[in-house]
Amino acid sequence: MPATVVIVRGRGVRPRGGDVAAPVLGRMYERGLSLLAGQAGAAESLRTMFAPSDRIGIKINAIAGRELTTGPAVALPFARLFGRLGIADRDVVLWDRTNRELRAAGYSLNAAGSGFRVLGTDTAGLGYEDEPLAHRGIASRFSAVLTSLVTASVSFAILKDHGLAGVTAGMKNYFGAIHNPNKYHDDRCDPAVAEVFDAPPVRTRHRLTILDALVVQCHRGPSYHAAWAEPLETLVFGTDPVAVDAVGLRIVERLRKAKGLPTLEEDGRPASYIRTAEALGLGRAAEADIRVLEDDV
Amino acid sequence: MDARRPLTGMNRRRFLRTAAGTGAALASGPAALFQNLYAFQATANLSHVEARYYRKLPDREIECQLCPRKCRLGDKERGYCGVRENDGGRYYTLVYGKACTRAVDPIEKKPFFHVLPGTAALSVATAGCNVSCKFCQNWEISQSRPEQVTHVDFPPRDVAAAAEANRCPSIAFTYSEPTVFYEYMFDTAVEAGRRGVRSLVVSGGHINPEPLEALTKVVDAIKIDLKAFTPEFYKTWVKGDLAPVLEAIKLIARRKTWLEIVYLVIPTLNDDPDDVRRMVRWILKEVGPAVPLHFTRFMPMYLVKNLPPTPISTLRALRKIALEEGLAYVYTGNIPGDEGENTWCPSCKTLLIRRNGFAIEANAIKGGMCPSCRTPVPGIWA
User: B74 touching A, CB under 8 A?
Assistant: First the structure.
């Protein structure tokens, strides 16, 4: 049975340089999640993936600053959906590596107050696990946000070109859950991306990937360069982490082709970690094994 | 919020483990100056000092030229070491003057056996390393980013002043990998030199020739951890390369900087006598017979806990090979009281320095020579 990946375009969701249009974004979540799970609405769909007793971690990628981060105007409406499952706001955590990066991306930190928690792993009292977890070729201390605070995880990742890995999407987002991602960029992050995802703290919690492709950096990523930042006004949804990334890769390649850029393979940086993840049994990467559903709202 | 731990962070187990690994909280010696500092709390005051060895590339990218990795980084990315960051197309060290460990150690602990025996070295480290040894003794700091360890502001001038105040004739850049805090080390060595304090480097030798050449002009001694003599070992267990380390050793040997070499012997991984013999012959050819070579004992650590400590017989056997091949000063390490800790005159076999662990029990060297036959003993003795 093929994996399902949903691509939803929201015309006008984020006019270039403008604010996010909340009604359009809301319809994108409703449509995308409904198509993904074959349910009538977003809440019903999320209910197939999460239990009311879950504590939800929404892993943001805030490294590239305000221009190229899933900001609060995009992430918070998604977080609110969990209220419809009976999950209290305080049991939904939007997080990344550092409070500094989250603040720079426009988030108001909230580690202990009411409402959604918004915090970095470097929040006092959290940090990383004491001991490194050796798993396949990696040895890392995992974020206590992942290992202690949450029971289920969403990778809400920015889709973008990556100068070493080819692309960075849902699986590589979890590099932000380990204390030493700098050690795993050799060999185009292959097999490290797959191995970090395969490690129990991630694999046992991950339920859903959402790729923020509202603006896609298709070249010179992962940092922001306006010349290659394409306003695609798209979100990509999937429960198969490999399939979502494979589709994300195709989106980036398509944008690169439209701009006359070489393929990532030709550029010497194929995103080979996606195939490696498939080989580890983490999901489907081949086009024939992925059913892509597309819609506009 | 469900705080996992007290906000003060460090539990006793973690403190003891870390202190044991770094030699901090020295119980004896001139001054148990500092405790090791390690916590999960972030400290945001990283340095923002421009790095010295890198080149700018288009589109705000840079290429680091400090070590053989030559990390190519986009804006906001860090190098493999985790302590250098591209910020808007300029490359910065985040650990300049940010010591995460500082302690007063016996110089024998480094180990330097031919440098000011019996003295103390003010030892300094920052977070970070440019390799990833699976058997690292100090992984808590070497394999961490600077935000992940607690550090203190300890600028070069203060380091030099602290060495003087604590009667340390030398400063050792050690514990993690000094290459990654190159600018801090370099400026501290310059400051120390002005005050007559010597500078010692304890390094894995993964550094490019140009910065190493410059470094040899301001430091007095360098100890290189030669971790094996096969590229395969470096690839698998170190995540590095052997060739640049050998080049670094050759470069140091050509300079006046004092050099010692340490070889941590890990059972079954790098204890092949034939490999060691090849290494010794290479040292003889490229460096000469006078360089001290230390075979030190491995203890299970970090990601290599499934192997036993190195048998003492193995260390003695490898020392015997090196002596047979013609090296003059070959030592065993981490075996307190072993005969291989002592320094003997290679000419008349007089016992010159008797050691017991890090302690000097007797030192007969006079004026840098054997008192019996007047054979010069290379090193820094005063």
Answer: yes
Compute CA B267 distance to the chain's CA centroid, rounded to the nearest angstrom. 22
B265 DSSP assignment: E
A127 vs B303: CB contact, 8 Å cut-off?
Answer: no
Q: What are the DSSP E strand ranges found in B94-212?
A: 98-99, 101-106, 120-125, 152-153, 170-173, 198-203
Contact B5 A134 (CB under 8 A): no
**Does any domain span residue B322?**
yes
- Asked whether the CA dihedral A169, A270, A215, A98 is positive or negative, the reply is positive
pLDDT at A15 (0 to 100): 74
Domain span at residue A218?
A: 3-292
Whether residue A116 lies inside any domain: the answer is: yes
Element (H, E) at B164: helix B156-165
B88 and A CB contact within 8 Å: no
Q: Residue A116: give its domain's CATH number.
A: 3.40.50.11440
Q: What global pTM score does this model have?
A: 0.91
Smallest CA-to-CA distance from A166 within A69, A277, A71 is with A277
- pLDDT of res. B29: 34
> Would you say residue A71 has pLDDT above 60?
yes
pLDDT tens column, A247-288: 999 999 999 999 999 999 999 999 999 999 999 999 999 999
Higher pLDDT, residue B261 or A17:
B261
- pLDDT for res A115: 96
The answer to whether residue A117 sits within a structural domain is yes
Give which of A252, A236, A237, A242 is closest to A275, Cα–Cα: A242
Per-residue pLDDT tens digits for B281-338: 999 999 999 999 999 999 999 999 999 999 999 999 999 999 999 999 999 999 999 9
Task: Please check whether residues B269 and B220 belong to one and the same domain.
Answer: yes
Is A220 part of the contact surface with chain B (CB cutoff 8 Å)? Answer: yes
Same domain, B139 and B248: yes
Instruction: Report d(CA A207, CA A240) in Å as an integer.
Output: 8
In chain A, the number of structural domains is: 1
Claim to verify: residue B106 and residue B180 sit in the same structural domain: yes
Find the CB nearest A125 among B7, B44, B59.
B7
Residue B329 lies in a domain: yes
Q: Is residue B373 part of a domain?
A: no
Boundary (domain end) residue, out of B93, B120, B151: B93
Q: How many domains, in total, are found in chain B?
A: 2
**Within a domain: residue A297?**
no
Contact yes or no for A185 and B80 at CB 8 A = yes
CB contact under 8 A, B76 and A144: no
Domain extent at residue B89: 49-93
Q: Which of A97, A136, A223, A269 to mutate to test the interface with B (most CBs of B within 10 A)?
A: A223
B80 & B165 share domain: no
Q: Answer yes or no: do B164 and B297 share one domain.
A: yes
- Per DSSP bridges, beta strands A229-238 and A138-140 are unpaired
A132 touches chain B (CB under 8 A): yes
Per-residue model confidence as pLDDT tens digits over B168-212: 999 999 999 999 999 999 999 999 999 999 999 999 999 999 999
From A243's Cα to the closest Cα of chain B, the distance in A is 27
A94/chain B closest Cα distance in angstroms = 14
B105 and B80 within one domain: no
Under DSSP, the state recorded for A165 is T
In a domain, residue B226? The reply is: yes
The pairing of strands A166-168 and A152-162 is antiparallel
Label residue B44 by pLDDT band (50, 70, 90). Answer: low
